[in-house]
Amino acid sequence: MAMNQSDRQKIIQAVRTYMAKERISREEFASRAKLGKSTVDKLVVGIFSEKTVLQVEAQLGTSLRSHVDDADVASEEVGKYTYAETKKYIGDYVFARPSFRDENVIHAFHMGIEWDRNAKALIVKEKSKGKKVLQFGTIYIPRASMHTFVLSTEGAWVKSIILSQLDVYKRMKGLMLTMGRAFGNVYAPMAMPVIMNQYEHLSDDKVGTIVPGSPVYEEYLQELQDVEQEQFAKWTRVGVKTG
């Protein structure tokens, strides 16, 4: 079985997809395939022999060399993740952040994540009703990263978001760097905690301008505070000990 680089990439994708679908670690994969952990570490980066591939296929009862539809693999620049291993992200979300100017106000947006075969990537789109300009972004998931990245552009304006990967509660937490209105018509760079929660059924009371007394205010407030308190993100300041 002569393997070119394309063949090797398909095998790498097949291994990673298997682990993602089974929700297992490399250690568990090594145990199932009866391989050493170091061999699996090499396997997922493309360093392997024909013998290793045959052993994995025999032990797992699957083919690593089956065809992978290129349309279902993200482009190299966004992480080369596959639709199969990231389809858990597809769905409806609440994206919530603090107000730029009102410290007791939270803004929550109805967002959707979907697979775009033309863009070859997961994309996030705002689904709010009645707005002429809707937010839009591309999702980047680097290999071996515990975080997802969202890059949104409106003309030359860039917004960058870093989130933890989707957990068992279908929650992501992180930071957003953007431009916000400081006062009047003056804008300034702003960094703030954000949350992105997935829901099967998204009711209207979960989105919009969320003020104290709103049904979901305390929930969103606690989760936004958890970004720093549970160290999903960390603020670094000059001359201040950060621990």
Quick tags:
434 Repressor (Amino-terminal Domain), 6 helices, 2 domains, Lipocalin, alpha+beta
Compact description:
The protein is α+β, with helices and mostly antiparallel strands and 243 residues long.
Structural notes for this entry:
The protein is of the alpha+beta class and 243 residues long. It folds into 2 domains: 64 residues, 434 Repressor (Amino-terminal Domain), CATH 1.10.260.40; 144 residues, Lipocalin, CATH 2.40.128. Helix content is 25%, strand content 31%. The protein has 6 helices and 9 strands. It has an 8-stranded antiparallel beta barrel with strand order 1-2-3-4-5-6-7-8. A hairpin with a 6-residue loop joins strand 6 and strand 7. Helix 2 packs across helix 3. The protein starts with a helix and ends in a 14-residue tail after the last helix.
User: What profile does the largest beta sheet have?
Assistant: 8 strands, antiparallel, barrel
How many strands in all?
Answer: 9
Number of domains: 2
Mean pLDDT: 87
User: Which segments are poorly predicted (pLDDT under 50) over 5 or more consecutive residues?
Assistant: none
User: Overall 3D geometry?
Assistant: elongated
Query: Percent of residues in helical segments?
Result: 25-40%
Q: How do the strands of the widest beta sheet line up side by side?
A: 1-2-3-4-5-6-7-8
Query: First CA to last CA: what distance?
Result: 53 Å
CATH superfamily of the largest domain: Avidin-like
Strand content: 25-35%
What is the radius of gyration computed over CA atoms, rounded to a whole number of angstroms? 21 Å
CATH topology grouping of the largest domain: Lipocalin
Counting H and I runs of at least 4 residues, what is the number of helices?
Answer: 6
CATH architecture of the largest domain: Beta Barrel
